[in-house]
Each structure stands twice: as C-alpha cells, then as structure tokens.
Input
Amino acid sequence: MKLENRVAIVTGTSPNIGGGIAEALAAEGAAIVAVDAREANARDCANYIVKGNGRALAVTCDVTDEKQVEAAVGAALKEFGRIDILVNNAAFFNKKGVIDMPFDEWNRQTGVILGGAFLFTKHVCKAMIDRKRGGAVINIISTAGHQGEPGNIAYSTSKCGLLNFTRSAAMELVGHGIRVNSLTPTATDPAESFERATRWGRTVKKPEGLDRVMAPFREGIPMKKLPVPSDYGKAAVFLASDDAAMITGTDLRVDAGAIARYWAWDPRAGASV
Ligand SMILES: NC(=O)c1ccc[n+]([C@@H]2O[C@H](COP(=O)([O-])OP(=O)(O)OC[C@H]3O[C@@H](n4cnc5c(N)ncnc54)[C@H](O)[C@@H]3O)[C@@H](O)[C@H]2O)c1
Output
C-alpha cells in the first residue's frame, strides 16, 4: 500500500469529492482525519472507514476559525502522533456575480476557500516542520479557477488564488521536504456520491431533473463523460505518495480535457471548429 502508516487530514468530507478522496487515501493505508463544519459529514466519513478496518477520526471544525483549526490539528496529533498529508477541499457554492454579490457573502466564500486552506496549511505545516519528516499538501481547485466563469465571482477568484497559493507555499516549504500541489476537478458525475452516501447509511433521494442539468456538461466535455470522485481520489493518492516525490508546485487536472479544449471548438460539433 502506498500510504501505509501515514496520516491524512481531509477537509470537507461530504459523500461527494472529499469523501471520495478520503476513501481512496484510506484504501492505500492512510489514517484519515475527516474534518467538516457539518458534524454528520465528518462522522459518517470516519465511521465508514473505521467499519472497513481503517483508522479514522471525525473532527467538527469550521475551517475559517483559527482556534478550531488549531484544535483539529491538535486532535489529529493526539490520536495518530503525526500528520503526513493535508487535503484542502472544504468549499461551498454560491453562484453570484460581481454586480449582485453582497460583500459579506464574498468575504465568507473567499474566506472558506482561501482562508480555510491558508489556516490548515499554516498549522499542519508547522507540525510537519517540527517533526522534520516532510509531508504533502494538496489543494482542491476547480476548472472555474482556470477560466473566466460569469456569475461565480467569489468561487472562481478564490480557486484561481489557490493555484498561486499552491506555488508560493510550495516554494516556502520546499526546504522542509513539504510538497504542495493542487488537483483540479471539474463538473462531477453525481452518481457516485449517491452511491457513497448510501454506503455511509444515508437515505438518498436523487433530485428531480438532475440528469437534465448535467447533460450539457457531459456533452460539452472532450471525453464526453464526467469524472467521478474516485478519479480524483486516485490522483490525490499519487500526489500524496512517494511516486510524486519530485513533484511540487504543480497542478494536476483530472478534468476529462475541459481546460485543454480550444475555446472555439465545441465537442458536440465533431472534430473541427
Ligand atoms: N462538485 C463539483 O462538480 C466540483 C467541481 C470542481 C471542483 N469542486 C471542488 O471540490 C471540492 C468538494 O466539492 P463537493 O462537490 O464535494 O462539495 P460538497 O458541498 O459536497 O462538499 C464540501 C464540504 O465542505 C464542507 N464545508 C463547507 N464550508 C466549510 C467550513 N467553513 N468548514 C469546514 N467544512 C466546510 C461542507 O460541509 C461539505 O461537506 C470543493 O473544493 C469544490 O470547490 C467541485
């Protein structure tokens, strides 16, 4: 197993992407500290991993509250004695544009995405530096952080900011053997998150009209199918593991070709523009 005896903190462990990444890291032997502001998301993720004979701890924590972040890092160290991997994944969606977004909502969304990653990186990396054994940080971006999406100003700006946070932190921490990379997901096939939520013991009702909402994403992406959280999980295992020992400050896109697409080419139209 690639992550045997290692300890990973994952923030934002809903049954969607954070849960998928946590399960993938656990399957490679890592102990998981599932951190979420929603107690049920931390608890159900950790419980599922423990039931499968893994090691896991649930911590309820708002990533924007520095005292709670310090307490979460302290709880991880108390339980497992070390932290090797941090996945900054917590975020929330609030699609508003520069004209209609209230300033407090801008502050809250940028605060969770950028501020939360800043606080967890700060306190986890202090512990990694004290231990002198290095570590790996993975920041979860979005294709919206690479492009100018209208009407999603705080989200796409924060995600773009996280790309350079990744590079800057990578340079600052390189001397301590801490690698900092990012992973870019895109519009995600929702089926796996329903399946995961069911495995976690939840009753799930698929929202009506979801297939209709997802259809343009599925049809417009070069691979003509959307990634699932376990695709991101495999990439996170790679970035966290010694297989990526020489990789820092980079972004790994798991986006079915979304960002590479020539802007004027519509995959629905066939091979040419
Ligand atoms: N779903 C997508 O299509 C998609 C696409 C690209 C990128 N992403 C990114 O992937 C990540 C996960 O997305 P998801 O779709 O699984 O979202 P999700 O809403 O299912 O999960 C996000 C989790 O973060 C938690 N969270 C929110 N605010 C928090 C806070 N202040 N403190 C602690 N926890 C908090 C939520 O409770 C939730 O469990 C996010 O970073 C998102 O931007 C998602």
Notes: The chain has one domain: 7-269. Residues 11-12, 14, 16-18, 36-38, 41, 62-64, 89-92, 112, 116, 140, 142, 185-188 surround nicotinamide-adenine-dinucleotide (CB under 6 Å). The domain at 7-269 is CATH 3.40.50.720 (Rossmann fold).
